[in-house]
Design goal:
The chain is of the alpha/beta class. It has a single domain, classed as 3-Layer(aba) Sandwich (Rossmann fold), CATH 3.40.50.300. 49% of the residues lie in helices and 11% in strands. The protein contains 8 helices and 5 strands. Helix 7 links the parallel strand 4 and strand 5. It is globular. The termini are far apart. The relative contact order is 0.21.
Length: 209
């Protein structure tokens, strides 16, 4: 059984951008990174990297288990690599290690047992969670130009509910609700990001004194 990841005592702050498919998290993260410059650095989505690189994406339970297990470990090492390269920046993580539990056939308990960890332990990896609710929750299309995405609107809404049930247990959980105006939704999400980054930056400054 894989050992749980070791979490450094002294590490940069990490913010997870997550939510169901078609929520706008990747768009918001990229816009915010461009605005903030060297204050933050974006950790790309591990699943997209893997599936775009040829990792099989099929529906058989054993194959999904293999994929989510691999995504979990890639996510961890991506964060570590970016953290080592940019130790003074806040990490914006496009999804986090908890996400795999929502995709795991058989339920989230099986996911955490398989990776040798717990929901509580994985949540402590991150200082804040900003959850972008999927457009599917408003019965709207989730088409966004991502060729890797293959979920139906119905499945996207179910995944959104599963993800929210898990991530909402984080003490610093922020919901960016669905809005028929994508512009208004992203604007709200960016404002929440700016607020939490400001708070974390101030906390880091106090620690350096």
């Amino acid at each position: 059984m894989p050992r749980p990841s070791k979490i450094p005592v002294h590490r940069p702050f990490r913010i997870v951008l997550t939510g169901g498919p078609g929520g706008g998290k990747t768009t918001a993260g990229d816009l915010f990174r461009r605005e903030m410059g060297e204050r933050v650095v974006l950790v790309p989505e591990a699943a997209t990297m893997m599936f775009a690189g040829g990792f099989p994406r099929v529906a058989q339970p054993d194959a999904v288990h293999a994929a989510q297990r691999a995504i979990y470990h890639v996510q961890i090492h991506l964060e570590e690599a970016v953290m080592a390269q940019h130790p003074d920046r806040i990490l914006l993580c496009d999804r986090g290690t908890v996400d795999g539990a929502a995709y795991w056939p058989g339920g989230s308990d099986g996911f955490f047992e398989d990776i040798g960890s717990t929901l509580e332990r994985e949540l402590t990896r991150y200082d804040a969670v900003i959850f972008f609710e999927s457009a599917a929750c408003g019965h709207m299309s989730i088409e966004g130009g991502n060729p890797i995405r293959n979920e139906s609107v119905e499945l996207a809404a179910k995944l959104d509910h599963r993800l929210r049930a898990l991530w909402s247990q984080h003490p610093n959980f922020i919901l960016v609700p669905h809005n028929v105006s994508f512009f208004k939704k992203i604007s709200f999400g960016l404002a929440m990001l700016d607020d939490i980054v400001t708070k974390l930056s101030r906390r880091r400054a106090r620690k350096k004194r």
